[in-house]
Amino acid sequence: MIERLRRWRWQIAGVLGIAGVLVACVLLVARFWPIGPDYYFTFHRTAEKWLHGETRLYDDNPTTEIPGNPDIGFFNAPWTLIVLVPLALLPLDVGQAALNVGSIVGILLCIRALQQTKPLPLYALVLALANLHTLDTLLRGQIDVLPLIGVVVGWWAVQSKRPLLLSLAFALIAIKPLNVALPALVLLVAVREWPVMEKLKVVSLPVILFGLSELIFGLDWPLRYLAYGKFVPANDYLSTSIWRGATQIGFPVWPIAICAVIAVAALLIIVWRTGLSQWMLAIALVTNALFSTYIHGNHYILLIPALVVVARRDWRLALLAYVATFTPLLRLSLGFEAARIDVVYPLVLFVMLWGIKLAAARVAASRASGGNWWAALLSTLTIESQSECNHWGNQ
User: Fold this and answer.
1) Are 318 and 122 in contact (CB under 8 A)?
2) d(C-alpha 271, C-alpha 264), whole Å
3) Can you give the pTM of this predicted structure?
4) CB-count burial class (<10 Å; 0-12, 13-18, 19+) for 161
5) Could you read off the pLDDT of 189-201 as tens digits, one per residue?
6) Residue 21, SS3?
7) Average pLDDT, integer, range 342-365
8) What CA–CA distance (Å, rounded) separates 234 from 126?
9) SS3 of 237, please?
10) Contact residues for 32 (Cβ-Cβ < 8 A; gap 6+)
11) Burial 298-325 (b: 16+ CB within 10 A, else e)
């Protein structure tokens, strides 16, 4: 009994110590970090207006609210306010600091989760944090770490067979779903054989949040959301979409469309045949980013799991991918039109991830009498998926 009390005392002291460090970090960031445009114009303003009863979300033509200082649009799920309202109750600088510190902690926890099944070198952590896309997210005051956490939690939930945890993951993914739609589909494919009751648990939290949103924000909020885009057009001048880049340089889009269909189909077939693994999670994120119709530099923070998988395989490949995160510097001399070059980062990761597995499959096939690379690839990924499931199943 005394030993248990002593252990509890140390645990409480540890929690209080961590909380103290986080509070100190928030105050320090609030003191020196500039206010991000996305946090101020979108997240803080929307939460503050909702608290004051000035918006139901997705209102008609919000761009005319303040001449010369327009709203830049709130395109997130209504339950994003669960995070934003507490931040809006704090002073502006403290609220954004709490978001940014929470984002860094979220990234670290995601990497820690990915590290549980396979060792990860320290430099991978450094590469994931110290790059321009992570900095871009923090400077903007963006919330892209929330869907990142959702994707990693979803992978963890599938491997450990925890339907309620997967339900939480889908609720987080739905906050900003466009650039995590393919990973979400992969998660759904991975649980297709779960019992019906488990599947109902998986969809429970998103359904509950949707229903509560109907009560709180009005039954017509989905319709208002769909109409919202005509008043607040997409911010395209910083878009790094491969489609935008192809149009700008006069390259036909049909070869890109064919590649996109093949890449998505191949991924879904493999997941259907072998189950889920870190590699498949990484390639789903990269494929989504590479062929997304709307993506900015801050969205590339979602590619951290892919960078981690590459870094675990070869430090030279990881370093090459890391160099590709610095293409935004070209805007200093080439202007914002050069934003399209940022697509090099997901492209490099896409080639690396497929190259690593295909090379391993060819080696395995050459060693097996009468083997072929496709069967070897499926066998390798099946073993990886089962290994990860066994690891979490023993926790």
Assistant:
1) no
2) 11
3) 0.91
4) middle
5) 999 999 999 999 9
6) helix
7) 86
8) 33
9) coil
10) none
11) bbbbbbbbbbbbbbbbeeebbeebbebb
